[in-house]
Amino acid sequence: MVDVGAKAATRRAAIAEGRVRIQAAKRTGELIPLCHPLPLDLVEVDADLDPALPGVRITATARTEGKTGVEMEALTAVAAACLTVYDMVKSADRAMRIEAIRLLYKSGGRSGEYHAAPAAD
Questions:
Q1: Options 41, 87, 93, 121, the catalytic residue
Q2: Is 48 a catalytic residue?
């Protein structure tokens, strides 16, 4: 950072906009050892405020047509989104926790369909 201590104060303003992207799911093959890179047909990441927690509940859906599943891509997207939320609000609550990241559903492949049991929040 540049030292601005000697500069005179002036009125300043800024407007910014941003988006949370799905790059983590797309780069799972680079982030997770021994994970195959996959062409993804769909990645959706949803973040919803959940007053019951209280906190943010994040879900990710990933789809592909290929020789291996997309569970790791969905899980990586959720983990990266959780870390992003943590980074954004850590100044308000250093004691917050990232917890309960899990696979809810998968389909396709030799092992077939999987549905997670309901969570015991």
A1: 87
A2: no
On whether the CB atoms of residues 81 and 45 are closer than 8 A, the answer is yes
pLDDT band at 47 (very low <50, low <70, confident <90, very high): very high
CB under 8 Å, gap of 24 or more: what pairs does 71-75 form? 71/103, 71/106, 72/28, 72/32, 72/35, 73/25, 73/26, 73/28, 73/38, 73/40, 73/43, 74/25, 74/103, 75/101, 75/103
% of the chain exceeding 90 in pLDDT: 47
Q: Would you tell me which CATH number, out of the four given (3.30.70.2190, 3.40.50.1460, 3.30.70.640, 3.40.50.1000), belongs to the domain 23-115?
A: 3.30.70.640
Give kind and range of the element (H or E) at residue 63: strand 55-63
Model pLDDT, residue 4: 74
- The one-letter amino acid code at 32 reads I
| pLDDT per residue as tens digits for the range 54-92 | 999 999 999 998 888 999 999 999 999 999 999 989 999
How is the chain split into domains, by residue range? 23-115
